[in-house]
From TrEMBL:
Residues 151-362 form the HD-GYP domain. It comes from Thioalkalivibrio nitratireducens (strain DSM 14787 / UNIQEM 213 / ALEN2). Residues 8-124 form the Response regulatory domain. Pfam families: HD_5, Response_reg. This is Response regulator. The modification 4-aspartylphosphate is found at residue 57. It comes from the Bacteria. Keywords: Phosphoprotein. The keyword ATP-binding does not apply. InterPro entries: CheY-like_superfamily, Cyclic_di-GMP/3'3'-cGAMP_PDE, HD/PDEase_dom, HD_GYP_dom, Sig_transdc_resp-reg_receiver.
Length: 378
């Protein structure tokens, strides 16, 4: 940082006498740099003391003022420095050419001291105003970015808190949220360029799915403990109550949307997943018996992720299945339980899904228990 806070003006003229006159005129108010050639001027501009304004002679040997100005405007580091052209040619055409090339103003020789000082002062004040606006915009942009990060974090924390609330009553505890969220993200990414899904699975939509996935079973908070935690098969009436968790979760999210007033994208995705991730490709699922492409893509992806995790995880009513057995069940469900293309993408990347399961395995959880006699409740 320089100790002299005055603005710095660079004078470029191949006539030493002109430099002396302009320097004497400007030094009482400004710091002055001088150059007699275009190449020298460019070196000074890119040196440690960057000028705030340049007075640039048009007619110079080797490299004229137009060439110097082109170099200045072509470099992002110097493109914003205002340039006042100096010329002895009182030709309107030359003035227009200079202004089109990017000069800020045009002064003719012989100079008039009062005019030079006024033009210099005007250009420096304009530059200070522009710099102030840029600084203000940078501060505003930084504040907007900070608040967006804060809102993003708040949203993620709220989602995770709601999901953990459901976990306090649900046997699917521990890292189930992290596993299913990672399955959904990876599976959606694998499908992103598939012809059937490319229009839907944009990067933005995949982010929405990943955020909303933890809320898929939020409705289980409404299921009585004697059903939710029952260590054995459910009776038909108990199973009917258990199935209501999909609609309960969807309704809760819908009510939250209505309270807010404006639609929120990730909540819309969460509502789809919560309501329809138990639908089946052949129409035999619940709660609405949707079939095929009538089931939202988000729910079709969540269905595979949720069933896989249910198969390989222990529950109060069953031990965990080995990975290979879970793979076989997913494959057998292709075209009946699952969208065939979603199931195929899962099977093609099966090793990755197994690695996710191992990475977020619950402490002390076995991963290769004997196959249970009771199927998972999905």
């Amino acid at each position: 940082m320089r100790s002299d806070s005055r603005a710095t003006v660079l004078i470029v003229d191949d006539v030493p006498e002109n430099l002396a006159v302009l320097g004497a005129l400007l030094r009482p108010e400004y710091r002055v740099l001088a150059a007699t050639r275009g190449e020298e001027a460019l070196k000074l501009v890119r040196g440690p003391t960057r000028p705030d304004l340049i007075l640039l002679d048009v007619m110079m040997p080797e490299m004229d003022g137009y060439s110097v100005l082109a170099c200045l405007r072509g470099d992002s580091a110097t493109s914003d420095i205002p340039v006042l052209f100096l010329t002895a040619l009182a030709d309107p055409g030359e003035e227009e050419r200079g202004l089109r090339a990017g000069a800020s103003d045009y002064l003719t020789k012989p100079i008039k001291p009062a005019v030079v000082l006024a033009r210099v002062r005007t250009q420096l004040e304009a530059k200070r105003a522009r710099d102030g606006l840029l600084d203000q915009n940078a501060v505003l942009e930084a504040e907007v970015a900070r608040r967006m990060r804060e809102n993003d974090t708040t949203q993620l924390v709220a989602i995770r808190a709601l999901a953990h609330l459901a976990e306090t009553r649900d046997p699917e505890t521990g890292n189930h949220i992290l596993r299913t969220q990672s399955y959904v993200q990876h599976l959606a990414s694998r499908l992103q360029f598939h012809p059937r899904f490319a229009a839907t699975l944009t990067d933005h939509y995949i982010d929405l799915l990943t955020r909303s996935a933890p809320l898929h079973d939020i409705g289980k908070v409404g299921i009585p403990d004697h059903i939710l935690l029952k260590p054995g098969p459910l009776t038909p009436s108990e199973w009917a109550i258990m199935q209501t968790h999909a609609a309960l979760g969807s309704d809760a999210i819908e009510h939250a949307q209505q309270d807010v007033g404006d639609p929120i994208e990730f909540l819309s995705a969460a509502q789809q997943i919560a309501r329809w991730h138990h639908e089946k490709w052949d129409g035999s699922g619940y709660p609405d018996g949707l079939a095929g492409d009538a089931i939202p893509v988000s729910a079709r992806i969540m269905a595979v992720a949720d069933v896989f995790d249910a198969l390989i995880s222990p529950r109060p009513y069953k031990p965990a299945l080995p990975f290979d057995e879970a793979r076989r069940i997913i494959a057998e469900g292709s075209g009946t339980h699952f969208d065939p293309d979603v199931a195929a993408a899962f099977l093609d990347g099966f090793d990755t899904f197994c690695n996710i399961a191992l990475r977020y395995r619950d402490p002390g959880e076995a991963t290769a228990n004997p196959a249970p006699a009771v199927a998972p409740r999905v």
